[in-house]
Design a protein that fits this description.
By secondary structure, chain A is α+β, with helices and mostly antiparallel strands. Chain A has helices spanning 15-19, 45-54; strands spanning 2-5, 24-26, 33-35, 60-63. Chain A has two helices and four strands. The longest helix of chain B has 24 residues, at 180-203. In chain B, strand 1 and strand 2 (45-49) form a beta hairpin. Classes of the chains: A alpha+beta (64), B alpha+beta (399). At the A-B interface, helix 1 and helix 2 of A face helix 4 and helix 5 of B.
Amino acid sequence: MRIRVLRERCVGAGQCVLSAPQLFDQSDDDGTVVVLNETPSPEDEPAAVAALGVCPSGTIRLDP
Amino acid sequence: MPESTVDAPHFPAPRTHPFDPPQLVSELRESACPVGRVSLYDGTPAWLVTRYDDVRTVLGDARFSTVGGWRFQSSASRAAAERAETSFTAMDPPQHTFYRRLLTRHFTVKRVELLRPAIETIVGSTLDEFLAGPRPADLVSGVALPIASRTMCHVLGVPYEDHQWYEERSEVRSLLDADPAEAEQATQDLLDYVDRLIERKLRSPGDDLTSRLTAELLEPGLVTRAELIAILRLLLTAGHETTGTMIGTGVLVLLQHPGQLDALRRDPALIGPAVEELLRYLSILHSSIVRVATVDVDLGGQRIRAGEGLIAAPAQANKDPRRFPQPDRFDIRRDTPGHVAFGFGVHQCIGQAIARLEMKIALGQVLDRLPALRLACDPAELLYETSNLIGVHALPVTW
């Protein structure tokens, strides 16, 4: 799995950080998403899927 | 708009149980067309969206706009208040994105966590005063609302002695049955107040968000003064009644579920899930999240025409059994992620990390410091607020 983000869509709601803090952070400059690990381990994949499900702005994409 | 509104039921509709959706919503959700016509206070037709997936579609899809949504608010005074709204909540991307991006760095999860010591102090001193007073006492006016007000005053650098003045004006904007002219005047009063606040922060800045935004945005010319006033007006009134209602009414729900209250006292790690379930279960916003279709869209078995309004409120989505089995049951151990209590889409609440932190600290300290907390009246005597927000009006308790 590979995490991609469409950063221009991000509204800094922080849902990804709450559901997968090991994979996502927020920029100090503008609060938008920062991917900490683009290729999550199999154990972290469910957290990535959860983050995808709660992102309000359609910023997160998961490629197989 | 739909041509005939004669048969459309009125919305908001009365509730049988204060925290459960009206029968109208539950019936519509299970019907073949879960997006249904309703008639607003003045006969204006609107579409009521009742299923979780459809609410997320309306709030997350660019074919639905927030512009002009005031026309589908649930009372004349709410419509007047929202019509006067000039902040980014009344804009679509990309205009909305520009303004929101100027603010988001101040509301990240990390940044908000830095508020923890200040909020702990606010909650602690509020409870000190409450516990030193007579009992029984009202937990809503004595604990819940002051915590929320003092937190927002701290964040924005607003003198706490002003809170009653601006909260009264905020309430006029929120009430469903206020005079529309008064709602407009209240909005203007708040804008004038924020203008004076900015003036003070320009002269003597402090360690607060108003000062930072004034220095970061206004002084370099990234926003005009009118734009900053609109932003700060929104921030000033968005965080006290909402979070205060959640804290006060949250305590009531916990008292009504003593088994879960005990579990929470034994295992403080449950506070996070408990807060999320309270947000889902109470879903205090039941009518005021509204969008307008910009093109014809098929949704929930209906053809929505461009220009028509849709009510896509959290209260409907969060009680959809397709997403949350037995939705009217309060269960702090349920799988709550994905609830839309803070909305969904690009307008999802910017202050949600503050609200979560405040609720966790407030509920945690209340349970910790009032081990014998109990209701001091017959639950049937409790009065509920069924205005813009759903919640208990007052909560007489003893301890």
